[in-house]
Design a protein that fits this description.
There is one protein chain. The protein is mostly helical. It has five helices and no strands. It is elongated. The relative contact order is 0.19. The model has no long low-confidence stretch (mean pLDDT about 90). Bound molecules: zinc ion. Zinc ion (ZN) binds next to loops.
């Protein structure tokens, strides 16, 4: 159980980084946000009215987080493939990894924005 008030609570429960009550994304499922509703994040928190896009171009920072997540995934999963299937061809590894990166792109996008905004915004308890 992740404690409310921590940044990981906001990231894993899809909550506003400031009040941790309102939702950051419309849905908790990354695939539903992109493929079904065709919407991105809420523009502001429905509880504390915190505007999520702090400044114009703020989400460009999420690209760097997304890149880091992708590289970490590729290194860990690629090394796992190599260790499980010892003499596998490089083209096969690259193909398998490419398919997984494309399939997991909405999940990566979902978490990269949440991580990016949690780097810059701290939780403020409204009761204090
Ligand atoms: Zn809020």
């Amino acid at each position: 159980m992740i404690k409310k008030g921590s940044k990981s609570y906001s990231i894993f429960y899809n909550k506003c980084p400031k009040c941790q009550s309102g939702r950051f994304w419309y849905k908790n499922n990354p695939y539903l946000n992109i493929f079904k509703d065709n919407k991105l994040t809420n523009s502001q928190c429905d509880r504390c009215n915190f505007k999520y896009e702090i400044e114009p171009g703020f989400w460009f920072g999420a690209m760097y987080v997304s890149y880091g997540i992708s590289v970490a995934f590729l290194m860990i999963f690629g090394a796992s493939l190599l260790s499980v299937f010892g003499n596998i061809e490089l083209l096969t590894i690259v193909s398998v990894l490419s398919v997984f990166v494309v399939i997991l792109a909405p999940v990566n996008h979902f978490f990269s924005r949440l991580i990016c905004i949690n780097i810059f915004v701290d939780y403020k308890n409204p009761n204090k």
